Amino acid sequence: MFGFLRRKKRKNEAAEVHDDTPQDLNAAGSGGDDTATPAEPIAENDQPAPSPAASALQTDRPAESADAGAPTATPARDDDAGRQETDTESPSPDKAPAVAAPKPEQSGSLFSRLAKTRSGLTEGLGDLFLGKKQIDDDLIEELETRLIMADVGQATTAALIDELTDEVSRKHVNDPEHLFETLYRLMVERLEAVQPTEPPARRQSGRPHVMVVCGINGGGKTTSIGKLAHRFKAGGRDVTLAAADTFRAAAVEQLISWGERNDVRVIGEPGRGDPASVAFDAVSSAKARNSDLLIVDTAGRLHTQSGLMDELGKLIRVISKAEPEAPDEVLLVIDASIGQNALVQARQFNQAVKLTGLIVTKLDGTAKGGIVFAIADELGLPIHFIGVGEKAEDLRPFEPRAFVDALLDRQPD
């Protein structure tokens, strides 16, 4: 079941229990009889509460135990509270402290990393679905609004709503909770339909696998390349990086720093002005050194800058001259927090250089996340990796079902 539905149910059940609880537990002792004695307050251990005099004596004197052989205990004073808390937390030297299991939000799982992204879509859905006994026009309209607000896009949202209403009309869906389960299935199917059958950066026979990474400035392009180098190097791959982003100041130095950190070769140096020549040299060097993976960084550019977009096309043509079957992949890095503008970027880059996939970054922030469905629907582009944090390990392979589970707050019962 979806987590927000479980939480809403628990909240409603707790409210019902609270409503059934008598409001005045002492009312039975006073019910209209002026001579009745009010009931004495009962302490937590079901013993009568001590009188004020007894309480004053107990402040300076140990309390008597019910068991004659049991040791007496002195209640802690206010000035001893800090010392008592410290003593309680300190484990005995001959007994190792128990290690508590990490909470989901502390575990670094995809579900916890997408908490902010998830809230943009599921906030209020508990009220929406549990407050309804049947599917009506208002429910469908509210769901449509929430999908659009989550950056799913007008066209994709309309397609999803059409499929849902068709399921309802065919009597395949007959209640709100089942409606949301159907939405979950449709979203997973959309992403799975465009995912590649082979893993990205697969090994080639006798030559390097060439991956060109492009995107606008600020989207996380060079950082994503450094994280890719870390991942593939840890997986036993021989990785070479090409610093072909000669347009942005310090971009080459940034990639060289990632190369040093991950112990991988970087072709290119500060001051070189022709990115295509850097890419050509990188392919030649990777082939000569028998490197099996070459990742090419390119200059960040806006999709509206036709001159720079033409230059990107030139760079890819030069790579093809150095290795006829390359590039094997052209990946676009998009920032999920920019919403529908990411779809415009993907559309323009795809027209210029024919993309093969996406890297979606910054999903651990306030990004809505719905844009991936719009891109998959319109362009048929798969998502290879998603960025959900600052660490190198936080660039993760994309898994459609796990992503939709985290986005819609769906966990096993």
Automatic annotation (TrEMBL):
Membrane topology: Peripheral membrane protein
Keyword presence, Hydrolase: yes
Every SRP54-type proteins GTP-binding domain range: 382-395
Keyword Disulfide bond in annotation: no
Keywords: Cell membrane, Cytoplasm, GTP-binding, Hydrolase, Membrane, Nucleotide-binding, Receptor
PROSITE patterns: SRP54
Residue ranges with Low complexity bias: 66-75, 90-104
Primary subcellular site in the record, as a coarse category: membrane
Catalytic activity: GTP + H2O = GDP + phosphate + H(+)
InterPro entries in the record: AAA+_ATPase, P-loop_NTPase, Signal_recog_particl_SRP54_hlx, SR_rcpt_FtsY, SRP/SRP_N, SRP54_GTPase_dom, SRP54_N_sf
Entry-linked SMART domains: AAA, SRP54, SRP54_N
Region (Disordered): 1-109
Pfam families assigned: SRP54, SRP54_N
Annotated localization: Cell membrane; Cytoplasm
Biased composition (Basic and acidic residues): 12-21, 76-86
Bias (Basic residues) ranges: 1-11
UniProt function note: Involved in targeting and insertion of nascent membrane proteins into the cytoplasmic membrane. Acts as a receptor for the complex formed by the signal recognition particle (SRP) and the ribosome-nascent chain (RNC). Interaction with SRP-RNC leads to the transfer of the RNC complex to the Sec translocase for insertion into the membrane, the hydrolysis of GTP by both Ffh and FtsY, and the dissociation of the SRP-FtsY complex into the individual components.
Oligomer status and interactors: Part of the signal recognition particle protein translocation system, which is composed of SRP and FtsY. SRP is a ribonucleoprotein composed of Ffh and a 4.5S RNA molecule.
Entry protein name: Signal recognition particle receptor FtsY
